[in-house]
Amino acid sequence: MKSIPSVLTAAVAALALSACSDGTSPSSANKVGVGFQLARTSTAASMTAASVDGSTRSVPGSMPTITASPAGMNISRDGDVLLVTKAQLVVRNVKLKSATAACADDDDDEATGKPSTSTSGSSSRREDDDECAVIRVGPYLVDVPVSGADGARVAVEVPAGTYSSIRLWLYKVTSGDSADVAFRQANPDFRDISLRLEGTFNGTPFIFVNDVNAKLTVPLAEPLVVGTGGDDVTVTIDLSTWFLRSSGGLYSPAAANTPGQTRAQVQNNIRNAFRAFKDRNKDGRED
After folding, report:
1. Distance, C-alpha 113 to centroid of its chain
2. What are phi and psi of 157, to 5 degrees?
3. Which stretches of sequence are listed as region Disordered (predicted)?
4. Is this structure's pTM higher than 0.70?
5. How far apart are CA 198 and CA 123, in angstroms?
C-alpha cells in the first residue's frame, strides 16, 4: 500500500484547478494547503442529537476522553477504551467553497451514475450554482497520524477570495474509471471501502472497515480570506464520536463491521465527525 507522500506526489502533479469565484482568475491565485488530522478534543456534546432515525435525544454517560501518544489515539468513555493505531481514509474532489457561491455538483456518484447530494450536519441538498474554486485530487489515500500530529498537506493555487467551507468526498472506490482502477491496483485493501482503522478495543485487536460514501460540506470555523496571508485549512476528524453509544460507553468497532443498527449509527456518526478551520501557522492548531 502506498503511503500518502508518494500518492500525493502523483496527485499534485495531476491536479486540475478550475475557478470562477468572485470574478477572479488564476493569475490572482495564492497557495493554500489542505491537511487532515485527528481531533485532540472530543466534540461529542454537539453530536449527541445526530441519530439514524432523525430523532433528538440526550445521551447518558460521560464525555469521551482523548489522549494522543506515539502509540496511538486513546479514546475512553465509561470504562470502554479504544486505542487507534492506524487511521486511513479515501478522499476525492476536495473543494473550497466561496462565501457567496456554491460549487457545481459536476461529480455525480460514479458508483450509481446518479447525482449525489452534499451533506452538512444532518441535511442534504443538490448544489447547482456554477461559481466555484475547485481542487481536484484523487482518489487518494490519507494516512492520518494517530499521534494527533498534523498530517501531510496538498498545496495548490486558489484564486483570491473569501471561502466559507470546504467540500470533500469521503469516497468508496468502486467505479471503473482510470483513476479508480489505478488506485485499487496500488491499494488493494481499499477495494469497495472508504476507510480503515486498526487498534484495540478493551484490549482486543480489531480492524474496522466501512464503505460510507458521502460528500461532506464542512463549514470553516471562520472564513478563509485567500490573498491576505496564505492561510492553510486543516480538516479534523473526531474518532471519539464514531463509536459513541447512546446508552453510554463506546460501540465495539468489530460489532460495527456487521450490517445492522450499530453499523448504521456508526456511519451516521462518521458523516458528522468532520470539522475544519483556517490554519494560519500551518501547525494543525486553530488560531
Report:
1. 22
2. -85, 130
3. 103-130
4. yes
5. 30
Q: Which candidate, 246, 242, 223, 243, places its Cα nearest to that of 233?
A: 223
Q: How far apart are CA 232 and CA 33, in angstroms?
A: 5
138, amino acid identity: G
User: What's the CA gap between 213 and 198, in Å, rounded?
Assistant: 20
CA distance 190 to 196: 8
- Cell of residue 60, nine digits: 447518558
Cell digits for 171? 469516497
Rounded distance between C-alpha atoms, residue 253 and residue 204, angstroms: 10
Q: Are 89 and 144 in contact (CB under 8 A)?
A: yes
Residue 262 pLDDT greater than 50, yes or no: yes
Q: Are 138 and 95 in contact (CB under 8 A)?
A: no
* Direct distance between the N- and C-terminal alpha carbons of the chain, in angstroms, rounded to an integer: 34
Whether the ω angle into residue 139 lies within 30 degrees of 0, i.e. cis, is: yes
pLDDT 10s digits, 18-42? 333 333 344 456 888 888 999 988 8
